[in-house]
Design a protein that fits this description.
heterotrimer, A alpha/beta (about 140), B alpha/beta (about 280), C alpha+beta (about 325), B: about 10% strand, globular, C: about 325 residues, alpha+beta, eight-stranded mixed β-sheet, four-stranded antiparallel β-sheet
């Protein structure tokens, strides 16, 4: 019986978190390969529609990560994103998408270790949670699986 | 004079004096409980106006219709406090010019009586709307939300899946909402197709979530959407939950002033981020 | 001699049909947040026989709001397509109303016009419509204005009329399919002297439909001010078209990605502002008035000229559920009082 391998999609900003992930790579820090990284110029570009698309395509977990407040390459993109995340997170939780499946973080370009640790922790957590069955049922019913 | 008689008098004066081109109000409908929107363009036609406890529809959405505005004209419109907040939001979002709107403001006092609210432009009601912000939310809705929040996420998902499975994608919620004025809704975008247009459970889930999100921090809870829904989806639960979040997280009360920065187009340095790792 | 179906034998009917692989669909109750529509019935107490009319019409059983048409799989060297047709499940619709039954007959011509629509036809061929004549109505019913009636048999395979003692219905086979159905029930039906029937409800005419059609057919009325007057408060939603048992416009959508997906047929509405938007950006029906005109003209002018039926059965759902109390009645009364 093969172990469940979670599908995790990460939407990250180019200048901080993506660079941080790069650093993790060049530092040869190991982290699970369950993560699929989607690079955006800034977290301010991340629309909640991306998260919904990830769920629609069968993601078990979603990570959204960007620059720390004050460090945004575009000055305030992450500050707009922060508000969006607050609202969307509470909406998702209210309609039954477990909070534990959608993670948000600030990871800077220097935080390679933080990135690796975060992905490791998240993958394990989602593995324990199991596949996002309720969403998969909806997808199957639409015959998109 | 009853409130209605006074309003009719005002409407006739506005029309006869050429101060407004049209008065948007209510008239009788198909049954005793139904009311219809009416566009009154002459003082004589103002006689058909009615105002009572059945006049619940928020009419302010009609203000984003080009047909309503005749060149440089002014429009008068019957509004409740939710309608005043609507005009504030539409003004803040650059969709209408509040200077060209004369308000015939009223409130439902109890189930039947109408109370006329003094004033005729949005600025006259600033204090009234400020007071609304500190008023407690409607209790039945709050209780239902509390009940849902006490369930597990899986149970909540099941609840909403059942509700959204009824959705036939008629978009009455969207069309009835004064704040849904996009000429091309996100669901009508097909390059790429973000949200499934089909009325299966997945598509319905996506649609209702997206619409709720697009109203986050903008919804003034007039209830048009839930009343319009032909399949009784409890949309106000979603709207109330998000309105509560906007207030708790950002101290944002939608539609408080016509120059209020939109909730999701502005930020504060100390916005909450306890959930961000 | 008349054939009677007793209420207390409905359960038996359902199980007998089930044993013959025939599913029974009936009006479901509007309770616990669910809305009334035609659902699969396992027992007779699931059937709501009291309500005047289901919210969702019987059209949903033949033309669902979304249905898959085919599956596709695109690989480097090949494209694999699999047609998805409705199953050939035998069904009986029990408790249809005459207005809904009429709509099915009206749509047969359309779905077999220049193309035989397998999605519609398969379901139609395998379904028997057992209607129950109306003993009650509400303020929105207007079947008689469309030359139909609360006890019309048009479109039904079998028509049931309630006995005044409430014990059951007098059964009348209308079509060959209906005759076969009645025969198949055998001893489930009791033969007796015709019982006293409950009074059919009376639905006053709300407008003169012949006048409406005549007016609509006159070229100069295409530009009438009536259209913008009548549609001023129209929201442009799809409630009237989706609740209407004769409205049949659909959109084809591919879902999935560039490699795998499903092609679907979904309800669409001529009320939507983008319904006629061309790729060029031009929209021949740019105003709600022009869209409302299209709706009325289609039902009372264009459709009758092609299919000999007005595309309306007077069920009243358009007015009953319109968020702004519109629906066709107001316009038709303005034209043809």
């Amino acid at each position: 019986m093969s172990e469940f391998e979670p599908k995790i999609i990460a939407f990250v900003c180019n200048y901080c978190t993506y660079a941080g992930a790069d650093l993790a790579g060049t530092s040869r820090l190991k982290y699970p390969s369950n993560i699929r990284i989607v690079r955006l110029p800034c977290t301010g570009r991340i629309s909640p529609l991306f998260l919904l698309k990830a769920i629609q395509q069968g993601a078990d977990g979603i990570l959204v990560s960007g620059c720390h407040p004050g460090d945004c390459h575009f000055t305030s993109g992450n500050l707009h994103a922060r508000r969006r995340w607050t609202m969307f997170r509470s909406l998702l939780d209210f309609v039954g998408v477990p909070k534990e499946r959608v993670w948000f973080s600030w990871v800077s370009a220097a935080e390679g270790r933080k990135f690796a640790d975060l992905i490791t922790e998240m993958t394990e957590n989602i593995r324990q949670l199991g596949p996002f069955e309720q969403a998969r049922q909806l997808i199957a019913e639409a015959q998109l699986s | 004079m009853t409130a209605l008689e006074n309003f009719k008098k005002r409407a006739k004066e506005l029309l006869a004096g050429g101060h407004v081109d049209v008065v948007i109000g209510y008239r009788l409908g198909t049954t005793a409980e139904l009311r219809r929107t009416v566009f009154v363009r002459s003082a004589e036609a103002a006689d058909q106006l009615v105002l009572d406890g059945h006049c619940r529809e928020n009419l302010a959405g009609y203000l984003t219709r080009p047909e309503v505005w005749d060149g440089e004209g002014v429009v008068a419109i019957f509004v409740q406090p939710a309608g005043i907040r609507t005009i504030n939001i539409l003004a803040a979002e650059g969709q209408i010019d509040p200077q060209r709107i004369t308000l015939l403001a009223f409130e439902l006092a109890g189930s039947e009586a109408i109370k006329e609210l003094p004033g005729s432009s949005v600025d006259d009601f600033a204090g009234l709307i400020e007071n609304l912000k500190s008023q407690p939310a409607e209790t039945d809705l709050a209780a239902e939300i509390e009940k849902l929040e006490s369930l597990s996420p899986q149970q909540r998902f099941e609840f909403w899946q059942e509700q959204f499975s009824k959705c036939i994608r008629c978009y009455a919620c969207r069309q009835a909402c004064p704040m849904c004025y996009c000429r091309r809704c996100i669901v009508e975008q097909n390059q790429p197709q973000w949200i499934c247009a089909s009325a299966h459970d997945l598509g319905n889930f996506e649609w209702n979530i997206v619409r709720a999100f697009h109203l986050a921090g903008r919804c003034i809870e007039c209830g048009n959407c839930e009343r319009a829904c032909p399949v009784n989806i409890p949309l106000m639960l979603l709207n109330r939950r998000l309105a509560r979040e906007a207030l708790e997280a950002f101290d944002h009360f939608a539609g408080i002033r016509p120059d209020q920065p939109p909730a999701l187009a502005s930020f504060k340095q100390d916005d909450p981020q306890h959930f961000i790792l | 001699m008349a054939k009677i179906l007793r209420k207390d034998r409905l359960n038996e009917m359902i199980s007998r049909l089930a044993s013959r692989n025939t599913a029974v669909f009936g009006p479901s109750p509007e309770a616990d947040g669910a809305i009334s529509q035609f659902r699969l019935m396992q027992t007779s107490d699931e059937i709501d026989l009291e309500r005047v009319l289901t919210r969702l019409s019987v059209k949903s059983l033949f033309f669902p709001r979304t249905e898959p048409m085919m599956r596709f799989d695109i690989a480097k060297q090949s494209i694999d397509m699999q047609q998805i047709l409705p199953d050939e499940q035998k069904r009986v619709v029990f408790g249809c109303r005459p207005c809904d039954a009429a709509s099915l007959a009206m749509l047969d011509g359309l779905f077999n016009w220049d193309y035989a629509d397998a999605f519609w036809n398969r379901r139609r061929e395998n379904t028997t419509i057992v209607s129950i004549a109306c003993t009650r109505k509400d303020d929105f019913c207007m079947c008689t204005s469309l030359d139909l009636a609360p006890d019309s048999s048009f479109g039904s395979d079998v028509l049931l009329k309630a006995a005044s003692d409430g014990a059951g219905w007098q059964v009348e086979a209308i079509s060959d399919k209906g005759r076969r159905f009645v025969e198949s029930l055998g001893d489930l039906l009791v033969e007796q002297n015709p019982p006293e029937l409950a009074a059919t409800t009376v639905v006053e005419k709300k407008f003169d439909v012949a006048k409406v059609c005549e007016w609509a057919a006159q070229d100069e009325n295409f530009e009438s001010d009536l259209w913008s007057q009548m549609s001023e408060r129209c929201l442009g939603c799809g409630v009237c078209t989706y609740m209407c048992p004769t409205c049949h416009c659909f959109d084809i959508q591919d879902e999935g990605n560039a490699y795998r997906g499903v092609r679907r047929k979904n309800w669409d509405s001529c009320s939507f502002s983008l319904f006629t938007l061309h790729t060029s950006g031009h929209n021949p029906r740019p105003t709600q008035a022009s869209r409302w005109r299209q709706r009325i003209m289609h039902k009372f002018n264009y459709y009758p000229s092609k299919f000999q039926h007005r595309s309306c059965t007077g069920c009243g759902r358009c007015t009953r559920y319109c968020p702004v109390d519109m629906g066709v009645a107001e316009t038709l009364q303005a034209i043809g009082r």
